[in-house]
Amino acid sequence: MTDRRFIEESFPVKEVSAISAREKNIRHGHISTLHIWWARRPLAASRATAYAALVGAVDDSLERQKRQDFIVDLSRWENSLNRTFLERARRDISQAHAARVGSPGDVPRVLDPFAGGGAIPLEALRLGCEAHALDYNPVAVLILKATLEYPQKYGRPFAGMPEHLWRRRKGGPASSGPAQLPLVLETPVPADAPPPDFNPLLEAVRYWGRWVLAEAREELERFYTASLYVPPEAAEEEQEPERWDVPESLRRRMVEVARQFRKNPTPSEGILWQALRGKQLDGVKFRRQQPIGPFVVDFFAPSHRLIVEVDGPIHETQRAADAERQRLLESLGLRFVRLPAELVEQNLPAALEKIRAGLCPHPRPLPHQGGGEHPHPRPLPHSGGGEHPHPQPLPHSGGGEEQVPPSPLVGEGG
Question: Rounded to two decimals, what is the model's pTM?
Answer without folding.
Answer: 0.51
